[in-house]
């Protein structure tokens, strides 16, 4: 071939300048990374050695792509995770995110929370709910609870102002809010409802799963919760525009759109968000966890009911109110002794009997699960000198004046300190449940007065 042919462009029939690559590299994510994950499962050195030999023999090719997009797979782990969420909750849309806080932030912005707005949050529930409101540049307003330790629907209306745009009922530690009451108030005042289901995955109210009753449901699917293995979260909704707005917060890069870099298809489709994308490793684990969750929830419910059925009534004890006996996950048993001193004494006696229990009593340390201790919110200090959003001109112009102090929610102040909590284990046998019930009755009989007319542990009994 002549020199001229060699210089001719391949497009015009000439030779390719690069017909093959000589250099041979290793996968970006290969054997060592795989073994680092395997090590987290606590396997013995001998087992890890065998696994390494198998993986080395098999080879890794180019290695996996551990992000949700451009993987070349028919279904990524993120997509499988979202599909599991849609199937379990019967929701039209599910969005996988990196944490429950990311889910809340995305949902609040999607619902229209921003400068000059307020969101009503429960006085008991982890601080992340109120924090996500502040991250969205809104102002949290705390609503008191009732004896279920959930948001009290009777107290919501006194918290509503012209600045209120949403309610954020938090289903507290395996329980369920009175969502019928919450939704009546929300619809009467045309407010969005963002359910925080981080601590009550799988709970139901009158047959409807938590997260499907309001406009958006937010979940923490993480190692700290009953469902999840690492860090992860999810947003569910039946509203396409809310899903799209939540996506734009969580996936600012626009990878979720049919044409990533295309102009906006409708007003306010595109705006600056952040990155709450979930790793494929986390998504793979969490997809399995969701599929396993119904059986786990049934076990918790069985254990709790077995114990409650055997508990005696006492004049000095008020059991936690149950809004839906069949709907609560029930991974803890709670009750309120008549005084702080009695709470502490009962908790100590239960522990001595071999029953895990806790109570804050008279000297409880600060706890970000109760509104008056949520210092990043209640101190009203923003990250910059303009103190946004607490002193945002839009908020002040609208008549806003955020103030927080202990005593704002007296029922929460009282119950949070007096509550005795007995954690339950889904793997308790029937005998374990009988022993726990006998131990609780033994302690309560030593400190309290039996009274068959006192409040029953189970509704309707």
Dominant shape: globular
What is the highest CATH level, the class of the largest domain? Alpha Beta
Structural class, from helix and strand content?
alpha/beta
**Sheet with the most strands?**
7 strands, mixed
The number of helical runs is: 15
Indicate the CATH topology of the largest domain.
Answer: Aspartate Aminotransferase, domain 2
- The CATH architecture category of the largest domain equals 3-Layer(aba) Sandwich
Low-confidence stretches: none
Radius of gyration from the CA trace? 27 Å
Strand content: 5-15%
Order of helices and strands: HHHHEHEHEHEHEEEEEHHEEHEHHHEH
What's the overall average pLDDT, rounded?
A: 94
Counting copies of identical and different chains, the oligomeric state is single chain
Give a brief description.
The chain is an alpha/beta fold. It has helices spanning 3-7, 31-39, 45-58, 77-89, 100-110, 128-135, 153-156, 179-188, 240-250, 280-308, 340-352, 375-378, 393-397, 410-418, 430-447, and strands at 93-97, 118-122, 139-143, 164-167, 192-196, 204-205, 208-209, 216-220, 233-237, 317-319, 332-337, 358-359, 420-423. A 7-stranded mixed beta sheet has the order 1-9-8-5-4-2-3, with helices on both faces.
